[in-house]
Each structure stands twice: as structure tokens, then as C-alpha cells.
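Field reference: sequence -> structure
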Amino acid sequence: MSPTTPPTTTDPFAGAPDIAATARRMPIAPLDLSIPHRLHVVGVGGPGMSAIAIALAEMGHDVSGSDLRNHPVLERVRAARVRVTVGHQRALVHGVDAVTASTAVPAHNVELEEARKTGVTVLRRSGMLASICARAKSLAVAGTHGKTTTTSMLMLILAEARLRPSFIVGGDVTDVGTGAQWSGGEWLVVEADESDGTHLELPIHGTILTNVETDHLDHYGSFDAIVESFDTYLAQISGPKVVSADDPVARGLAARHGAVTYGLGPDADVRAVDVIAEDGSFRYVVERRPAEGADHVRLGEIDLPMRGIYNVKNSLAAAAMALEIGVDFADVAAALSRFGGVARRFDVRGTDGGATFVDDYAHLPSEIDAVLTGARDSGDGWKRVIAVFQPNRFNRIAEIWREYQDAFVNADLVVLTDIYSSGTTPIPGVTGKLIVNAVAEAHPDARVVWLPRRSDLVSFVAGEARADDVVISMGCGDIASFPTEVLDARRAR
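Structure field:
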């Protein structure tokens, strides 16, 4: 099975009820944030919760937070006038109006227990994010991957158009150095996470849907349930819907919900043509169909300073939504031409001896394939692509390890390590070696190295990388620090 092919051989919409039957009312915010509140954020060092804490503080609420460790992001949270405590204490929730925490925080956390015991309102991240979304005209970006980059691009386009957007993103936007900001303007741009069903809880005006692939089976149980969740999500949105025409499942959803489509194919309503990659960037022309059945009209050219055809698609999605709400194409082109990227998205962390070391968040098969293809076709002149991958979550790998077999075809060398648990329980027989076996069986001539110990991994890559190589380490665990570790090891020799 190709890593980009959803695991279904039947039409996921066959026998589906009419849209009117699946539609439901827009979700209602559980907390009225037009009234000043005293709020506490548990796990405030996480990327999602730190963004929420910053937004709440900039809205004018009295905000405190706690975390087990002193993460670097906490300095930015403190700068937003959030009182941060390292360590969890029951007394921290005394006198607050509401407490919020992500689903990663266990229910038996002492602060959550104390809040429930004393009658304080407890909201999961989805509830607090919904309450924030209700305070503005919210545009969300949903989909299995591409959300953070696309959200960041859309926010910067709206800022270029002087619309003063607020934003809450799942990673730091390089251009502004933060993942959240509350401006008090009309628009809010937000990342709608499907991992725990958050996307279904948000009162959203309009949305982008980037793709629909297999993930989060621990929450949904099946691919069909994932599709159904996005079907319900689109049905409850009354404003503009911009959906990928290049993803087959998303394209089916677009047809069901009358969405504007975007993509590289000829039938997309907003499409990229004359796409050229050179020197680590892309240039392409945007064409738009002004009405159903009409011919496409050329709007102009985009110079995108990013690698990877997937980023052309991400930028096209942001452009399509901006155009739908009336932004001039000149503002779209200007913002995208200066886009600096998002932390951990093809993040060049350094060079040594002519080798380039890159960090990327990619962890699903299609994401890995897209990143490696982007590096191969970037025009940077790299002679070898070395892929270093840390699998994530035992339950995820147990379900989809076979789908990684073709994810590394654009790498000259594949280096695999063991699974980063992310709080999941080990499963007998489920290790990173499963992916090693899948790749080796599908591609017997591929050079695949299995190094479960971190010290061995660092030592091997530090010695292997040479001039004109690009080393791309990928995953959503502690692999983020790997490029620094390798650079330090090389410089110590």
C-alpha cells in the first residue's frame, strides 16, 4: 500500500446520509470570555497550552499556569504576564474561575482533582479554545497534516492585508517568534486539531481542509470514523470552506459540502500552474475559477521561499481562503514571498564540513515521503539525502508500521531508531524494528540502519555525514534535539 493511499478500498461516502441529516448547530462556547476571568492552565509548557495561555492573557484575563518542567517556551509565556509555577500544587487552583488542561494531562493530576473537588469549572483544551474562537470571526485550518504551516501562512496574509488577525498556531511562526497573539481584531486564525476531536467543538466561521489520512486510531478506531468526523465538521460550518482537490477523500468531502477546491490538478477552483523549483524555493502562477463552469483566470505569480511541493499546496490553500474573504492577490503574493516558515518544518539547524542538518516534525508515512521528495527536488544540489526517523507512539506504530515501507524511497540512507512513547504503553513486539523490516522487505537494495540507542545513533550519523549531504531527522518526540547533538559530536572530534 502506498503511504499516501487511505486504507480503504470502497467509497467512504457510499450510503452516507444527506448533508442536512449530518449537519448540526455550530458548537457553543462553554465559557464567556467577554467577562474578565481568573484562569489557570495546567501543562502550560506544551505548544498548544502555551499558545492558549498567551492568548488568554493578551485578551485581558488574569492567567496562571503550571508545568512539571521549566520549558524554554515558559519565558515567552511569562513575558505575556502569565504567572508560571514549575511543579503542580493544589493551592494553585484556589480562587480561580476555570481551569484548563490538554488531554495529555492525566485526570488524576492534583490540580484537576482539586478543581473538581472545590467546584471550579474544568475545561479541556478544546473547551477553552472554543471559548476563544467565539470572541472573533474564526478561520480554522484542519486536516491530517499541513495545519501549522497553512495556519501560519494564512495569518501572515491577513496581517499583510492590514486585517490585524489574532492567531493560535501549534508551533512558533518564525516571522513573529510566537505561536499565539490576540490583537482584538475581527479575525482569528486557528489550527483545528482532530487528534482528540477538538475540531468538532470549535465555533468556526470558515475552514481549510488540507487532507484526510490515517492517524489517531486510538481516538477514532477506524479510518471511516476519521472521515465521518471531517464530514460532520464541514457540515456545521456556514462560512467559506476551502478543501484540497489533490487528496481523494478531501475532494469527496468538498463535493458533498459545496467547498471551493485548491490544488495542482486542472479541475481545482484555485490552482497552481507553471510550478518551478530552484535554489530551495518555488515559483508558480495562481489561477482562479471565478464561478462554477467558468474558465480559470490568471491572478499572478507567487515566489515561495520554501522547499517541498507540499508547501506549494499549503500556500495555495492559504491563498484560496484569503481570496474567499476578499483579500487582494497582491497582499497574498507579498506575504508568501516573505514567509519564514514554522519551527520544526524543514528547519535547517546548521552545517558542518559541507553537510546540512535539518529538523522536521514529519512522523506519518506521507509526511516523510513529502519531506524527502522536497529535499531531493529542492534545487539545492545535495548529492545524498540521509533520513533519520524516530517513530512515535506504540499504538500508532502497531497499527500502521507496514505503511512506512515506501516512505523513504527518496533517501539514499535510512537510519531508524526506537519508538518514542509519548506517554503510550509499550506493546510486546512493537519496536522501531518493525519499520526497518517493512522498508527492507519492500526495498531489498535500500541501505537501512537500525540504531535503537541514542548514543549509537548520534555517533553513526556524526561519522557518516559528508560534504553535499543533507541529513533530515524526523519525528515528533525528542528527536528535535538530534541535529544539535550531531553537530556538537562532529565539532568535538
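Note: The two ends are 43 Å apart (CA to CA).
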